[in-house]
């Protein structure tokens, strides 16, 4: 299984990167300090990719560790 870890994936460039990987067949793990308002858009529901979102500040080592733990635990995470 291919997994892309994307920081800042809630919006803007990070979101575009996450969507690109999702369309390419990757599972996507996203960390951001903001909630994910953009993922409610209709086009993301048609990707058929697996994704997990973690509210985390990646400038904090402990937060990154928790993000990675959640990513590994959720290898078959929900579909967007």
Count of all domains: 1
- Which overall shape is indicated by the principal axes computed on the Cα atoms? globular
Largest sheet: 3 strands, parallel
Helix content: 25-40%
Q: Within the largest sheet, what's the order of strands?
A: 1-2-3
> How far is it from the N-terminal to the C-terminal residue, by CA?
17 Å
Number of strands: 3
Alpha-beta content class: alpha/beta
Pattern of helices and strands? EHEHEH
Key traits:
single chain; alpha/beta; 36% helix
Q: What would your notes on this structure say?
A:
This protein has 80 residues and is of the alpha/beta class. The chain has one domain. Helix content is 36%, strand content 20%. It has three helices and three strands, in the order βαβαβα. The chain has a three-stranded parallel sheet with strand order 1-2-3, sandwiched between helices. Helix 2 links the parallel strand 2 (27-32) and strand 3. The longest helix has 13 residues, at 61-73. The two termini are 17 Å apart. The model has no long low-confidence stretch (mean pLDDT 80).
What's the SSE blueprint?
Blueprint: E1 3-7, H1 12-23, E2 27-32, H2 42-45, E3 51-55, H3 61-73
Parallel strand pairs: 1-2, 2-3
Short account of what is shown:
With 80 residues, this protein is of the alpha/beta class.
